[in-house]
Amino acid sequence: MVPAVSSLNSHRAIDIRLADRWFEALDQRQIGIGAESWVAQVLGIHIDEANTIWIQLTSVDNPYTAIILHVSASATLDRVIGALADRVLSDARPEIIDIAAVA
Questions:
Q1: What are the angstrom distances between the C-alpha of 36 and each of 20, 59, 77?
Q2: How many CB atoms lie within 10 A of CB 14?
Q3: What pLDDT score was predicted for residue 7?
Q4: At 97, is the secondary structure helix, strand, or coil?
Q5: What strand order describes the sheet that includes 30-31?
Q6: Whole-prediction pTM value?
Q7: Residue 90: what pLDDT?
Q8: Cβ-count burial of 80 within 10 angstroms (0-12 exposed, 13-18 middle, 19+ buried)?
Q9: pLDDT under 70 in the chain at which residues?
Q10: Which 8-state DSSP code applies to residue 36?
Q11: Using an 8 Å Cβ cutoff, are 57 and 67 in contact?
């Protein structure tokens, strides 16, 4: 059975609001402190069918760095910021940080 159009539109509106909240929380945010700090730039956000959020970030100062966050819907901003602050940025292939699996 195909879901009603209004149900699909409602789900999409929730996804857009959730993506907007994560964008506002992370884009242009300073991560870490001191010489190792960096400013995040959000490149993209995707919400999958399991309601987990995929967020692609880079550093404003070095766009060749990339981090991909895999975040559960219940993850807190503090947990995400802490996970980002614990990472060292590099120009290597993108690192995936799985916040969905962290207890």
A1: 27, 12, 20
A2: 12
A3: 47
A4: strand
A5: 30-31, 38-47, 53-59, 67-71, 95-98
A6: 0.80
A7: 72
A8: buried
A9: 1-14, 100-103
A10: G
A11: yes
What is the model's pLDDT at position 86?
Answer: 86
Cβ count near 90 (within 10 Å): 13
> Look-up: residue for tokens 């490149």?
43
* Distance of alpha carbon 75 from alpha carbon 102, whole angstroms: 9
Which amino acid, 43? L
* CA 69 – CA 100 distance, rounded (Å): 9
Looking at residue 57, what is its pLDDT? 94
User: What is the C-alpha to C-alpha distance for residues 92 and 25, in angstroms, rounded to an integer?
Assistant: 25
Alpha carbon distance 40, 31 (integer Å): 7
Neighbours of 101 (CB within 10 A): 7
Q: Which amino acid is at 59?
A: S
Under 8 Å between Cβ of 41 and 60: yes
**Helix and strand element counts for the chain (H, E):** 2, 5
